UniProtKB/TrEMBL annotation:
Subunit composition and interactions: Homodimer.
Protein's recorded name: Enoyl reductase (ER) domain-containing protein
Key word Cell division present: no
Naturally occurring in which organism (per UniProt): Lactuca sativa
Transmembrane segments: 283-301
């Protein structure tokens, strides 16, 4: 059992005071302060955060931990268990969780608008004088302790390195799973990846392990070239260096387009390029032969709609989205964690480019904004 948990045994089931990074408004710097964390209620878990990291989703609005105490009814974990927190939960009992066609839970799917716990519609965080502090994306891990629905907490192998396991809470599962679960990329396939942040690099690793014959990375940051090659990218395109569009260059390189494209930038113009980079229809004896799938992974905050004409879908191309890489968190993530520990092609250490103490969280965000980090690991 983690020493910090042993020290906390005197407060099991009681309110805890701890350090947290609180955002009091959009665009404002984090305030490092002492907060109060209530004990977990029914089917909730209070967790001691050991490592956390920042991602682009945090900017627009992964983590490894140890269970500190559990609420009534929690049966699949106990105090001291090593766990991952996930923003896309799984209750295992609703019609959605029982379906093989989706990984979105009816109750605990990702919901950026929900900022309170489901039990009583209240928060488990407050300031020292009792002012409520709201939750974020089912997780709220910028705190030494957090309270979560047990449906969003996954027990993993205690031998797994917790610092690297933070990647599975978000980027690695999303990108790698989009390749293996959503697209089902096959050996010899051609792939284009638009946006080489952490998710895009995870897509490259997934495509590499699946035996893709050509993996083309697309990014306006020239520094991503070397990192992409390390992950398994075979070709790199910087659209700013081209005299043609990125999709035209890709179609030239692949004799008509790639089998799979992945949009990881959260930009509709980039999505359009990704869509056009896939194989379109060919004619053979008046028969339509078309293929090519675009998987949307980027977070799109714009009110603009998809930049597609419906008739373009008659050319054989398809487009779909993927949440959390198609993984059912409680059922499948622990097995994926074991796979990451033993499969040579998955290079977890390559994602962690910086490590900082938790108090330097604003610096971690700045590194991400400037495109200088893939993942900055924060030590609590």
């Amino acid at each position: 059992m983690d020493n910090s948990i042993e020290q906390a045994n005197g407060v099991l089931g009681k309110e805890i005071t701890c350090t947290a990074a609180v955002a009091w408004g959009p665009g404002k710097p984090f305030s490092i302060q002492q907060i109060r964390v209530q004990p977990p209620q029914k089917l909730e878990v209070r967790i001691k955060i050991l490592y956390t990291s920042v991602c682009h989703t945090d900017l627009s609005a992964g983590r490894a931990r140890v269970v500190e105490c559990i609420g009534e009814g929690v049966q699949d974990m106990k105090e001291g268990d090593h766990v991952l927190t996930i923003f896309n939960g799984e209750c295992r009992i609703c019609a959605y969780c029982k379906s093989e066609s989706t990984n979105l839970c009816e109750k605990f799917r990702v919901d950026p608008l929900r900022s309170v716990m489901r039990n009583d519609k209240k928060t488990r965080f407050s300031t020292q004088d009792g002012k409520p502090i709201y939750h974020f994306l089912n997780t709220s891990t910028f705190s030494e302790y957090t309270v979560m629905d047990s449906a969003c907490v996954v027990k993993i192998n205690p031998k797994a390195p917790l610092d690297k396991m933070t990647l599975l809470s978000c980027c690695l599962s999303t990108g790698f799973g989009a390749v293996t679960n959503t697209a089902n990329v096959q050996h010899g396939s051609t792939v284009a990846v638009f946006g080489l942040g952490a998710v895009g690099l995870a897509v490259i690793q997934g495509a590499k392990t699946r035996g893709a014959s050509k993996i083309i990375g697309v990014d306006i940051n020239a520094d991503k070239h070397i990192k992409g090659q390390t992950m398994g990218m075979t070709h790199f395109i910087n659209p700013r260096d081209l005299k043609m569009s990125a999709h035209e260059k890709i179609r030239e390189m692949t004799e008509g387009g790639v089998d799979f494209s992945f949009e990881c930038a959260g930009n509709l113009d980039v999505l359009r390029e990704a869509f056009l980079s896939t194989h379109d229809v060919k004619y053979l004896y008046a028969i339509f032969l078309g293929w090519g799938v675009t998987i949307v992974l980027g977070i799109h905050l714009t009110p603009r709609m998809l930049p597609l004409h419906p008739m373009e879908l008659f050319d054989g191309r398809r487009i779909t989205g993927s949440v959390f890489g198609g993984f059912k968190g409680k059922s499948q993530l622990a097995l994926f964690a074991d796979q990451c520990m033993h499969q040579d092609g998955i290079k977890l250490e390559e994602f962690i480019t910086h490590e900082l103490p938790f108090n330097n969280i604003d610096q971690a965000f700045q590194l991400l904004v400037l495109g200088k980090s893939i993942r900055c690991l924060l030590h609590l």
